[in-house]
């Protein structure tokens, strides 16, 4: 069973994950289960996207006391957060700040759209945003 303190954030492009942040370093089997839960929620994200015009899709899946919240950008890039039931306003603010950071990254001429994000500055800022809203 996944840890209730688990926090896994993934940015998924059109064909592959672009960025990952795993707050809790857990046993390998737990980490694999967390990634499986996020991967299985991708179909639910596509389904939820057709039911609303909002970018923030809220909780799209619940598994073993874990919830998957999703934010969908205009370019169909998915921000997916696996968490143990955080405050909805905190999650929305987290996604909003990360989206602003992502848009700034897209404006960088050295970043190619829909490629893995390797910027240390981006990673540092995402971690700071996660501490601010999700701790």
UniProtKB/TrEMBL annotation:
It comes from the Eukaryota. GO terms for biological process: endoplasmic reticulum to Golgi vesicle-mediated transport. InterPro entries: Longin-like_dom_sf, Sedlin. CDD domains: TRAPPC2_sedlin. One of its GO terms (cellular component) is cytoplasm. This is Trafficking protein particle complex subunit.
């Amino acid at each position: 069973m996944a840890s209730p303190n688990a926090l896994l954030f993934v940015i998924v492009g059109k064909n592959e994950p672009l960025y990952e942040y795993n707050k809790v370093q857990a046993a390998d089997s737990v980490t694999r289960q967390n990634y499986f839960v996020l991967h299985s929620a991708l179909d639910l994200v596509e389904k939820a996207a057709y039911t609303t015009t909002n970018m923030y899709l809220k909780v799209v899946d619940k598994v073993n006391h874990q919830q998957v919240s999703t934010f969908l950008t205009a370019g169909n890039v998915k921000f997916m957060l696996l968490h143990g039931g955080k405050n909805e306003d905190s999650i929305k603010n987290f996604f909003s700040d990360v989206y602003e950071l992502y848009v700034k990254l897209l404006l960088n001429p050295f970043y190619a759209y829909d490629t893995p994000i390797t910027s240390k500055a981006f990673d540092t800022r995402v971690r700071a945003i996660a501490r601010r809203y999700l701790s």
